[in-house]
Amino acid sequence: MANKQDIYLYNCNQVRILDDLAIDKENISGLQLMQRAGMAVFKHILHHYQEYAITVFCGSGNNAGDGYVIATLAKEKGIAVKLIHLKQPQSLKGDAKRAYEIANEAGVPMADFSPKMVLEDCVIVDALLGTGLKGSVKENYYDAIKIINDSNLAVVAVDLPSGLNADTGDVENICIQAQTTISFIGLKQGLFTNLGPDYCGKIIYEDLAVKPAIFDEIKPAAIKLQLNSLLRHLKPRQPNSHKNLYGHVLVIGGDYGYAGASLLAAEAALRTGAGLVSVATHQEHISTIVARRPEIMAHAVDSNEALLTLLERASVLVIGPGLGQSNWSKKMLNCALKADIPSILDADALNIIAHEQIQLNTMNHPYILTPHPKEAARLLNIETKQIQKDRFYAVKKLSRKYRSQVLLKGAGSLVCVSGNSTIGLCTAGNPGMATGGMGDVLSGIIGGLLAQGVNQNHCLSLATCLHAEAADIAAKDQQRGLLPSDLYNPLRRLIG
User: Fold this and answer.
1) Angle (CA) 350 422 439, round 5°
2) Which of 139-171 are b and which e, b meaning 16 or more Cβ less than 10 Å from the residue's Cβ?
3) Using a CB cutoff of 8 Å and minimum separation of 24, what contacts does 414-419 make?
4) pLDDT in tens, 16-52
5) Domains located in the chain, CATH noted
6) pTM for the full predicted model
């Protein structure tokens, strides 16, 4: 089981509080904490880049102080080191100023940044901008980051890549492209979602010898989801099991031209372990579905009456895969929403809800909504870029507005069980998943788990992890060309 320090995620304000608590409760100075941080980075460099000279880029805050410590350690070790500062050291304050003074006394070579400078072969330490960045990168910091990125040299980022918003994972205009990011005290939530994974490289956590009890003082903003821990909610089957014990999933979708989406969702529900799976679709798609997967019960539905017959037998609904936005689509959705059945709403079901401004009746149970950023934007009637600018805020707002559980898909998918809950963040998954039909498989997995009796408060998190981990297994040889149906076999291995 992972340590809480490894899975708890914090916003910048929370990390500052953790820093203060560590200094206060453990009776250490801010400079000592800074020296521990610098030593952690330096040890990493020694292990991975021992044959390289080191160039340290320093800004003006405590992040810069860490950089001065690193440069001092390199000098003392006899390693060729150069420090480039973007702010005059005389402007430094507090612990950062003292770190500079120690570096200066040690004889660390220092120089002012020049936009015309050329970087020779070395490993670069990014100690430019810390967690305090708000908005865009300006002036000589922009120029420095561009020179570093254009050099194609290895970069180790101190705490986070400069230019990345530690709270949201957003990049306003430019960001350091790091090979490694070494994060201290509390892991920053923005490292793991939105653009964070694009710029952080490998993320290494260093607790700086802070005692675990410190972390009990603050409730984390988010938690990295752990598949092994979540799997305990999927109970082993007894020898006398039969299909009726494991629910009946009804997938409603498959408008003209979209039969594949409903089939993917239905088969995913079966592969996850649902006892029975049906599809409500058009007559023209019945033969295709049965030929591809005879275990799925495919029904031609062209009226509310026909759908009501199927709803009477269903224990879970998956509404949206291949649903379309035709009159038939809207009729099917409106009829299904009147049923008192736990439901997963995906794809065009979400688009219809947004366009028609449909209010969900959550009196008996919350719905599960699974939007990608564009669908989320439609649900909140804002631009997609606003969703991505702060995904954590967006997923909570969606949960509150629709009084539902919400999965906001994308790199670092976010799970919000209620508008006030700690957000779950999935760190698994890969770019090969960027293909049509992946979301349909995910919806089917959620439906399959819910049908088997997995508690709704854990179902969405478990499904998200299973889907991402199965994709990682399926993409071990090659990400490009990964198909949604490639996930079925690894999915079965994961759930046992």
Assistant:
1) 30
2) ebbebbbebbbebebbbbbbbbbbbbbbbbbbb
3) 414/193, 414/222, 415/225, 415/460, 415/461, 415/464, 417/457, 417/460, 417/461, 418/366
4) 999 999 999 889 999 999 999 999 999 999 999 988 9
5) 4-219 (3.40.50.10260), 227-495 (3.40.1190.20)
6) 0.96
